[in-house]
Structure formats: C-alpha cells, structure tokens
Task: structure prediction
Amino acid sequence: MNWNWGILEISVIAIAYLVGSIPFGLLLTKAAGKGDIRKIGSGNIGATNVLRTGSKKLALFTMLLDLIKGFAVVYFAKHLNLFFEASIAVMLGHLYPVWLKFKGGKGAATYAGVLFALSWPLGLQAFIAWVAFLALFHYSSLAALLTSLLIPFTVWLWHYPDILWVSIFLTALIWIRHIDNIKRLIKGTEPQVGSKKKK
Result:
C-alpha cells in the first residue's frame, strides 16, 4: 500500500475505476432486448437481478464479466505493487459508476474477481462459501454478506498479511452497499433468487 501517488499510481486508480464502472448487466440486457434492468426487480444491475428477466444465460454472462473485470484489473496491478489501490478503485467503480449517477451493482462478483487475482485459493474458497450460503438460504444478498464476513477471517487464518486490509476494506464496501438489502432481510421482504417481482 503506497500513498505517495504519482502519475503511474493515479493512472492505475483511474483505469481501475473506469473498468469497474462498466455496467455489464445493463448493457447485456439492453442488447438482448430485455429493456432497462433498472426497472425490473430490485433495480440493481447485477447478475441476481438480471436473472429476474428470465434469462439464466444473461445472468451467468453478467456474473462472469463482473468477475473478470475485477480479476483483470487487480492481476495487472499486482505486478506494479498497486493491488490495494486497484482493488478499492475497481470495486468503487462497480458500486458507484459515474455513468449511472453512482448507482451500480452490489459487488459480489467483482469482489470474487479481485480475490481470485490476489489468491486463487482464497477466491475459490469465497466462491464455494457463496454457493453454499445461497443454496442454504436462497438469498443472494445474504450469501454475499455472510461470505464477505468470512473473507478477512480466512485471510488472517491463512496468514496473508499483505491483503488483510484489502479484504477488510472490500468487505466494508459490500456491507455498506447492502444496507437496503439488510433492512429488507430484517423485515422479511427481500426477494429470493429467481423472483420475478416487478419494481
């Protein structure tokens, strides 16, 4: 983590944010003639809401592309020793894209991509945990929240001191972005995966 930013550091941060802000869910659903994903279900641009269009293929592609953008940015930034800055920037881009008035996705897939770039065993563990929580509770948001809580603990347990702070920051971002979901979970009004309820 280097706070003495120069042209290289600023460029990496800017590129990471811009790549992260590409709204694949919105672009794919519009290209497929599904309309504006922001007017469907929860209004979110992520894979879970894309699934509510009835297209599993579009949802899968959205998840993969959101994961790939997180992976690609951080993978290359690692070689410049700027993985901390790039990880935060690409997540902020996904969560708060300037093109969509700072209303983006919830970050689970992009977080997974970042983790795979930092450590593929850690990314795999997080993915398996997410799938397990999703199968158990049927709430994508709850699966993301519980998985994100496990990540810093796993990083500490596996002795990855270099990425501990990254995992804490990204987990905090996930929880901040899921505040509305947390409220709905508490009220019992959070839609389950596969729900096609209109916004």
Observations:
- The mean pLDDT is 91.
- The chain has one domain: 7-187.
